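Inputs:
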Amino acid sequence: MRMRSGVFAFSCLLVEALGVALFLRGFFPVPVRTLPRREARGNPPAEPAPSGTGMVSNWTKIPPPVFKKVVIVLIDALRDDFVFGSKGKQFMPYTTQVVEKGTSYSFIAEAKPPTVTMPRIKALMTGSIPGFIDVIVNLNTPALLDDNLIWQAKTAGKRIIFYGDDTWVKLFPKHFVEYDGTTSFFVSDFTEVDDNVTRHLDRVLKREDWDLLILHYLGLDHIGHIMGPNSPLVGPKLREMDNVLKKIHISLLSKEQSSLPNLLVVCGDHGMSETGSHGGSSEGEVHTPLLFISSAFEKRSGPLTQPELVQQTDLASTLAVSLGLPISRNSVGKLILPVVGGKTMREQLRFVHLNGFQLSRLLQENTPAYEKDPGYERFKIAEKSHSNWIKLYLEGNNSEILLNLGKKVLKQYLEALKTLSSSLSKQVAQYDMYSMMVGSVIIMEVLLLLLLSIPKALSSQAVFEVPLSPPLFSLLFYLMCLVLCAVHVIICTSAKSLCYFCSMSWLMAVGVMMLISALMCIILSAIMRIFESSRLPVKNPIVSSFSWSEVDVLILAGTIGHVVSLGASSFIEEEHQTWYFLTTTLCLVLGQELCRNNFLLNECDPQHRTTMKQNFDAVKKASDCKNIDISAAGNSKLSKNTSSAEFIKGSDKWISLASPWIILICCRLLRSLNQTGVQWAHRPDFGHWLTRGITEARFVYVFILGIVFTGTKDLLKSQFISTDPSVKSTGLWEVYSGLVLLAALLFRPHNLPVLVFCLLIQTMMTKYIWRPLTFDAAQTTIMHYWFGQAFFYFQLWLVHISQLTKHFPEVYCVFIIATCSSYAVRIEGNSNGIATVDVSAGFVGLESYVEIPAIFFTVFATYAGPLLWAIHLLYYLSSEVKRSSTAVGHGCFCYALMHSIPVAIYIVLVTVLRYHLFIWSVFSPKLLYEGVHVFITAAICLFFTAMDQKHS
Amino acid sequence: MKGAEVGRLLTANLLCVFAITLTTFVPAFFWDGFTVLGTHLTWLCICSVCVSTFNIILHFVLKPNLTPKRSSFAHKISRFLKSCISFFMSCVLFHAIIVLYGAPLIESVAETFLLAVLLSTFTTLQCLCLLGPNIQAWIRVFTKNGATSIWESSLQITTICSILGTWFGAFPIPLDWDRPWQVWPITCSLGATFGYVAGLIIAPLWIHWNRKQLTYKSR
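Outputs:
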């Protein structure tokens, strides 16, 4: 099948977009969640009443609290062996004594990765497993909006006091009656950060005016980060913690005079690895101790056994029950029964029923086929036997049999809870590796195909043969299809966890498999072809002496360097710096090229020129045989000589020499604008001159629509009726200016300088640099791409300057998520509460939230930089059609290639680094951004191809 | 003749490398607390001064210029003044380029300017020694195949290596390792120095390697 490079590039990008979508779906599992807490909440279920008879249980409300005061001591990075191992015996004598002989229950709580503090606090307090999407959706308003224990406690009128890591204060603003946040920013601070917590302790323990006290100690984590878990500093720190626990425990015991006992909970949010870091999923990182200490518990007797393994999420449900609160709706945890073991059988059954009911409701909301879930079935059976038990109980039957029967029901309930909880947590816990692999295989194949077709696609015809039919009818293709389908069936039947690709319909899956094998066969045949052609002897040694100019070297080195830099989290975080650095260097090299062009030819004698001419003639002859673009290059260099000869006259020369410097100064100004932009963004809005009212904005919309419409009309006309190229270029110019106006409308005032500078730089580039230097289409495209990227960051930094925290990338993924799905908007309600401009751009000129235009405007405002540069490139290339007729096709191909390389490499990198500490904060946002950018690039390529139609 | 010439170049360059190594050790004997990283600005000054004096001395000793013209004292003075002015201009130009690359404009001006001085010592001063304040000659040397002697080829290589070294030296700055050497402008100046040293060593070897291909036209 014969294809033009533009069409080929576009189809490649389409396939790639499919791959990226599949990969993203596998990488970001959809979190288990129900409606936000403000939505209608059902009443707690009554005790299951015996059917048939008229008896109704009078227990319809939430049971009363089990404990009076609860103290939670959270020690950051407390690993299980710090308490239960030899270190615990040595350094925590009081705690060990309580664990071994006292009234306590000890467990090992397993944390789910990412084992980083903030998601872990969320897991402890909501009982849900915060997925990535979950983390970022709430990032903009960092307060935790989900149903959680602290919120429940506050609504129930409990007074909560908090001392420790200020993440809590951010997560639960206005929830604490008294708090003192310490910062985890100074990692080398081992003592102050804990003293700041402990100093309040004596005063608070004397007082009676609180119900829940939370302490979060950071010192151990800091020691771990710097010195590791085996450092000599760990011992004294553990001893300090032991003293704190002793103080609290004794004070709690001394206060117990009334009916209800008090409870002390000791836990860690995550452990630490052997090197002292955390974030991954090694055993040391996920296993934390969990201690419940209360006088209500029975004294432990008999030999000490290995503590039981529970989930970290179980704490939320257990605490909710202990405090007499409803269990948070998103909790996937199950009640730790021993904690309420001192209560009567009826009460215990009531607790587990509440927990089971909450879990099964969560399951109902998340899985359509919930009725088939074994956990749900078990719960229903347990509920039935529970109601029978209630019937017996209400009849006054109060014997040994009832107790035994109750124990049986309890067991049934616990089984059901376990199954429910594990099937719920499976949905978020791990990466869907299979979908990720399929997606990345597709992307890598597309990249290979693009790379293999570089020589053909950039040839002077820009048309090439895609070997489609021979591979499609080969035996290899069918064999591969069969094997892949077999693999698919095997993986899907054996997979324990939920897998998106498996849950697709089989027709789709087979289609994807066929696509993969077809791509594979095409690649193989392309490689064969290259081998065949390389076996022919190379006749012309002159071609090999085709020398690289500085710009070529820079472009190659820059592309490779950028791709390599994606492997380091710091470079991703500072990617804007990479682009600024590269564009600055590019400008300097261009300036040098211009200098040489002007000065050398100035003094260039005619003799020199003729030798050059002869040289190029030789190259041209050589390239004629080889059919590669060198002829164009030779032409261009010839014309370079002639054009610059005319060009030397006049003052243009000096402007041309100065233009790289002016561009550099513009870029530098934009950069410093970013740095000082903070004050600008906080200044009260000095009036968006276009959007002061909805009517004006609409007027501007109509105006822009008019411009774009005339542009499109001209384009269509040039496509089908007229052959006059000027019509086409006016059309393109109109579309371009329409888009510029739209950008002006959607940008915030402090972003407008970016637009102005963008226009200025584009004009200068075209007039004084591209024209005199006459690069070929590929080089021009790549340079445009670089500038587009740099401008994306110029604008982005201005956009987000108001939230320029150290967690910049997290912020920036918020709006990308909003862009992708406008999911966040729906959650927050139709407000401008999301302070990012990108979302608010979706509201310009609209009275209320309308999904499609909002998404379109948001995407446009976000990607305005790359888009404007791409359209400008198209305009420039199509005005250069006279010089080389295939410029647009080449440009399109290069654009696709330039974007495919980083995406493909990045996806492989992310897969390899998926347990990296910064995977959620640095790598994932960038992944989302790249994903959306692939779609944008596909759209741009479509436009390019449409424009290229004429010159087929 | 050519072999002897290359030998002379090699010794000169090795002496230069030796001088740079000396600047890292010797001041520590005279001044307590001197380290290249700790008191970086002092080192920058010492290194620039040392390299420039060394280059000037070498230039007078070896006299690589093939046609030393007899000229009047006044002419010499004017040449010297011109050289000084171009050196200063090149410092300012390098400073401007570094700022355009993103160095802070107002803060740490001294650091940036000293880096510019170091770069000028490594590049412009050599050109001044060899070619004199003659822009046309500079442009000739720095175009492809423009060198007319092995000294000029060596000049090309060391200059390009120093600038590339500075360029690569900027890479570790955004990394979040929080090391003492990540402070501006240590990485860049060290990159420039290493690039210069590498250039000094590579140049004679490269010329020796390619002596067949190198045919210098007389002017």
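Remarks. The CA atoms of residues 147 and 186 of chain B lie 33 Å apart. Helices of chain B lie at 2-30, 40-62, 73-100, 109-122, 124-131, 135-141, 150-169, 186-209.
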